[in-house]
Design goal:
single chain, about 260 residues, alpha/beta, eight-stranded mixed beta sheet
Length: about 260
């Protein structure tokens, strides 16, 4: 099963770094968050990826073109008549990566529609290129197969991000308390699985995947929700990026489900 990753947006809410590169290429540690996401899927044996690129898409292509350079020791030998580049301890992931320029201003649904020929007539996974989590991909796929619907989306209670005020029916404040995960609503965190029929629900470049296609699936009772209760974090802002990076540097990143 192929993994499709949406990586074409502008990342305006983290413009401190996305002005120079696509948001999925912003580094956590020494590697782009896109690499972290791919490692999650790869740890479950899914090694074929389709990257829906757009904004500064050439940076994504160039990074993968030089991937083995990022992970190997290299000697540049200019001492002889011929310049030589000697690669030591060459290492690269066992991945097949297709990077597709899906347009600069194409909406999320349009990006998915554009990679239809690369997916083929088979189920596929879909996620966003700016969030990490310890979602159990094996259980997610098992759940998708069991219910037999067109789509499965992973849901997560992200919780309230502020302190909570409790008030009575008379309008008087009853208490202040710290936020709790039980205060929030379920949100879509990506890590989705779809049957190829999903392409029939997308009209074109101007289609937002989260609106018409998903709403039609809901209306037809063709979208199921898989509840994730572990760790998940998006990287919309610089503060969130710093939170993720702090976890990675601590050596206790919850999404690091792979072995060295």
């Amino acid at each position: 099963m192929k993994v499709v990753i949406l990586a074409g947006g502008f990342g305006t809410r983290i413009s401190e770094e996305s002005v120079l590169k696509p948001k999925p290429m912003i580094e956590i540690g020494t590697m782009p968050i896109l690499w972290h996401i791919m490692k999650i899927y790869s740890s479950y044996g899914f090694n074929e990826f389709i990257i829906c690129a757009g904004y500064k898409q050439h940076i994504i292509k160039e990074w993968f073109a030089d991937y083995f350079l990022h992970t190997s020791d290299i000697t540049f030998d200019y001492t002889g008549d011929e310049n030589k580049m000697i690669i030591h301890n060459k290492h690269a992931e066992h991945w097949k990566v297709t990077v597709v320029d899906t347009g600069l201003k194409t909406e999320t649904g349009g990006r998915v529609k554009r990679i239809k020929d690369y997916v083929g007539n088979e189920p596929f996974m879909l996620t966003y290129g700016d969030a990490v989590g310890d979602v159990n991909i094996k259980k997610l796929i098992e759940y998708h197969k069991q219910h037999g619907k067109i789509g499965t989306m992973t849901m997560y209670n992200f919780g309230q991000n502020k302190g909570v005020v409790e008030a009575g029916k008379d309008g008087l404040i009853k208490a202040f308390r710290e936020k709790s995960k039980t205060d929030g609503d379920m949100i879509n965190i990506g890590f989705m699985v779809f049957q190829p029929e999903i392409f029939n629900y997308i009209e074109g470049d101007s289609t937002s995947f989260e609106n018409d296609p998903m709403e039609k699936l809901v209306a037809e009772r063709q979208l199921a929700g898989y509840i994730h209760k572990g760790y998940w974090q998006c990287m919309d802002t610089l503060r969130e990026k710093q939170q993720i990076e702090k976890l990675w540097e601590s050596g206790n990143a919850p999404w690091k489900v792979w072995e060295e």
